[in-house]
UniProtKB/TrEMBL annotation:
Keywords: DNA-binding, Transcription, Transcription regulation. Residues 1-58 form the HTH lysR-type domain. This is Transcriptional regulator, LysR family. Gene3D superfamilies: 3.40.190.290, Winged helix-like DNA-binding domain superfamily/Winged helix DNA-binding domain.
Amino acid sequence: MQWDDLRVFLAVARDESLSGAGRRLRIDPATVGRRIARLEEQIGTTLFAKSPQGYALTDAGERLLDHALRAEQAVLAASEEIAGQASRLSGQIRIGAPDGVANFLLPQVCAAIQDDNPELEIQIVALPRLFNLSRREADMAVTVSAPSAGRLLVQKITDYRLHLAASQDYLDRHGPIPSVAALRDHRMIGYIPDMIFDKELDYLNDLGGGRVPLASNSVVVQFHWLRQGGGVGIVHDFALPSAPDLRRILTDQLSLTRSFHLVRHADDARLERMNRFAALLSDGLRQEVARLEAALDKMSQASDA
């Protein structure tokens, strides 16, 4: 079994299609199909169950996946060691993240990293769900809860704050909100309850639950509802400097703190390139959260003066 065959196998396993694997490898999908058929013939078993929905790993394919991932890590580690560590990062790195951090933090942090490493390609996958790092849906992921299962490297990046907020227009139309209990008389904006993929995002539990007339699985949709005067909801403090029309409310009665974690596959610890990028990303996110929260505090002090 050749590494080049395993490379094609990994691409199909990750993209679950010949066309996606072809784009990843920059080869024709028909060639990808022939390579997979040849590999299956060589080892005498079917690796993928083919259907109109795509290519799903069989039990044999799942067993081969573990070996292929280890082979990939060995090849990457050997390449780095032989070539030596360049002063600048290069290649492609894909980050998975929930859409709050993906929209309000990662763009500026990653742009700054890429400024210093022009040969580096950074991809941000913004999805409101957990990522499967074993299948390389992403090279690393920013999460709110720290996973406890799997062969993963988990490091805390930073804490961040959240508060209730509403637009000035909404407050002008509906009047001041004197207490958390008074929220029952206001339209709440939040997550779709059965689509909350992380218990740490179930913010409205801190308010005693209740009905959510305007709900989305996307924090950015919620953010824009708030900006349009749709109601009251929980907002990341680091997002508020970009929306001067929103006002924090009841800050003395409700303040939430959550944490960001960087999650990587354990085998990546041997890759200096990934270690360097992870350090840059963590430092950048930590500094950006601190900068934006400090800017918000300064804005709040100025408005209270």
